[in-house]
Amino acid sequence: MNRISLLITLIFPFVFNAQMYMRKKQNFGVYAQYNISLEERNNTSFNLGITKQFGRYFLPEFGFRSSTITNLNREDLITSTVHKKYLNLALMARVPLFTINERKKGRSCRAEVVEIFFAPEAYWNLPQTNSASNSFLSYKTGLGLYHVQSGFGKRNKAWTVKLEAYYRGVIRRQIQDNSINKEVGLQLRIIHYKTYDFVN
Asked: Sign of dihedral through CA atoms 104, 108, 109, 111?
């Protein structure tokens, strides 16, 4: 009887002090893109925006894009730089494909997940003094990579960081005066999830 009492005395503090964090549906994320044009050698751009995950597969995006085009006049050897700014909306659909680098560290199993994604996009050129306002549709498709691990730690459940590589193509242009053509890019996506302690 004394042994049972001792065992209960030792175990109960760990049970009541245990923390098992689970994710809620509420989440909020940010992303940053760096793009390199495949058609214009001196056309680079970056995107910044906000995102949110709905369920397992969908992530809408709302962002801002700034493009820089450097033109060289071969006759006068004078360079001119044009800056263009856009607002954009996108709806990403993503599907996990497989895991790589599976390993065990202590009591935790860890791996990286490779996913494939596709996102239709809409861009609106912000009005500028020397540029006509235009809009067009595009898409991006590529692969993403992010880390997963077992366990119920708060940090593990609260954050997801993804690195994504993609190709962007243009579906429809209203006019030709735009700085977005076929391009490749890298994107960093960080999402924070609200969590709750499942035990308490």
From this structure: negative
Residues in the chain, total: 200
Q: How far apart are CA 96 and CA 153, in angstroms?
A: 23
Can you read off the two tokens belonging to residue 68? Answer: 């820089």
Judged against a pLDDT cut of 60, whether residue 72 lies above it is answered with no
Triad 115, 120, 124: Cα angle to 5°: 135
Is the pLDDT assigned to residue 12 strictly greater than 50?
Answer: no
Question: Per-residue pLDDT for 85 more than 80?
Answer: yes
Residue 158's pLDDT band, with cuts at 50, 70 and 90, is confident
C-alpha separations of 124 from 23, 78, 175, 176, 196 in Å: 35, 30, 12, 13, 39
d(CA 36, CA 180): 10
In whole angstroms, what is the distance from residue 131 CA to residue 96 CA?
A: 41
Instruction: Report d(CA 71, CA 62) in Å as an integer.
Output: 29
Contacts of 120 (CB under 8 A, 6+ apart): 90, 91, 137, 138, 139, 171
Query: Please, what's the b/e burial string for 127-147 (b: 16 or more CB within 10 A of its CB; e: otherwise)?
Result: eeeebeeebbebebebebebe
